[in-house]
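ok trying this again, last paste got cut off
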Amino acid sequence: MAGDLFRRNRPFNQLDGFYTDWSRHLTERCLPTLRDFPTDAKNEAVLGDIHSYYDTLNHYANKNTILYFLLPSWRSNSLETPILLLGDINPRLFTSLVQSFIDDVGLSQDPIRTFSTLAAWEDLSLQLENTINGTVSRLLDETREAQDGFIRRFSDKWVSSFLPSQSGTVIMETATSVMTTEDCGAIMEELARIYCEANQLRKSTITDIAGLLNMNQRALFLESVCKLLAGFKHQDQAFQNSLFDNHLIRQPMMQQHDAPRQVYAHPRPFAPQRPPPPMNHHQQDHVIYVGNLAPEATDDLLLEQFSRRYHSARVAKICFDETSGSTYGFVSFADEREKWDAMKVMNRKFFLDREMHIGHAAKNSIN
């Protein structure tokens, strides 16, 4: 029922589009299907789509894309963080949903959708709890170990950069240099493996729970799961709208010379696009650092990548670090607002099949 939503030939720079299409599919197809006279066939179709969603994420997860999946650029609402685990919903939430249905007094009075007769839940709940707790604990330990490995390599690189000729080194440059090493590639591959195993745990937990429920219970459970998965996009939009409605973005949020704290969402199909508060303009250029570039990147291609969106993008310069073999660059803007917006919006976007790592440059000029 999902058409080509789960196709495996989607370019990496369209992964944001996959999340958007998936959210729309849940809202426009899956949820109406479950609410309109549920049947076993409809339940299986929706469950199959959820399986395909996680399988598709695992297909695209690799050492070059894993940081995007763990920290997707559109998932900016920190209020949802407590229910997440390794880039998606914590599987404990799925078991908690069933328990909440069982405990719901109003639902227990519904003779069709009641969960009060779910006698086998106690045994399955204990089994799932043991599996989830054990697997999550191990995956978090493995994630921590991989992160520690990256930190050690970052600190070594950072210390070695303390040379007069490299006094302008910034964190993004160091991180990009570390990312190009063979050791770091192994770390990213390990994170991709951990992420894929977490998705398998999510998928198996949903499947085991659905297998225990009758037709109407399964429809209600799957409806709740679909609402959660679709809700990341829509709840974020509602949250941002509430900020605009209460005029919070018009309040002073920085001192002079401080970076603007932008609370509006970066452009996405479900999010409103509003201009930032006006800022003072200066005659000097405003420069960003762009790391993790492809070797074939050129000044003109990099400038074109930003000038499509930002009219004040003026100059781009590609640099090559012979020591690490990494390619990075700088882009200058005439408008300071566009510089800060580019740092937020364009970070982790794909350019020539590589995820850009964007940060503040040490100097406000490109020589």
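PB: full thing came through this time. Residues 234-282 have pLDDT under 50 and may be disordered.
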